[in-house]
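EI: anyone free to look at a 314-residue chain?
SC: sure, send it
EI:
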Amino acid sequence: MSSASKKAKEIEDPGSGEGVEARDYDIEIQKTLEEIDGCQNQIDGLNEKASDEILEVEKKYNKLRKPYFQKRNDIIKRIPNFWVTAFVNNKEIAEILEEDEEDALRFLNKLEVEEFEDIKSGYRINFHFDENPYFENEVLTKEFHLGSSGDPASQSTPIRWKEGADLTKRAKTKTPLKGRKRPLKHRSFFDWFTDHGDPSSDEIAELIKDDMWPNPLQYYLAPDIDIENGVEGDGEDCETEEEEEEEDGGGDDGDEGGEGEEGDDSIVVVEDDVDEEDEEEEAVNDEDDGVNEEDDLLVDDEADREDGDGEEPE
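SC: here you go
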């Protein structure tokens, strides 16, 4: 904390645009700043204490979760290709999977994430494999920990590839698929496994540890979940609407010529004929009405005359 005699940093005067020196903090402000600093130190101390207690709680629940993770792995073994299906259904992991690597991961029978006793010091990911035509290892482990300098570091099990089956060499000879974006610099899954260039930002490891491992079932069931949520149904609705619009558009085009015109003309002609017939009937009726009215007038005149002739003068 600066003393009362220490002057504040120069600030820019928005009016003049030149740097001017602010006045010294007065005694009251200086005391207030020192009180704020004291409160902040207490808050920081509580935050550190909370972090330590949270770590202790996490350690406790890691031990409580462990038997359930083991039980879940035993159940998963009953489902063929569970883990490779979950990996393929995860968009980020799927982006770095080559076809040959998918075949190799079909032999993956168990996945484990183990946090160290001191959680802050690191964790390891264990991949357990059945006997396969690619490598001799039964377990492949990639580990993340704090190095001697305190910086994150990683290491992994050397893969004992069988003759002609090194998938890292095969991946390097292939050109990336068009439109495929790979996270970081990894071109394939086993490239990621053997790479230790930047462990502090290993997105794939963090994804497996914090997302895949806690709940792999959500990825195994991903397509079914999409169907339940109506994802595919929405697509079908869109396609149906587009087809209906195309059909409507086709009808509009047909109105401009061909059968459409004949259909419209025939309707108009029928309506015109009906109107003309109605008009003719009305005209005939009008003529009949006129004739009848004239006859009625003549009859009335004759009746008046007869009445007039028949009357005797007084």
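EI: The two ends are 145 Å apart (CA to CA).
SC: 👍
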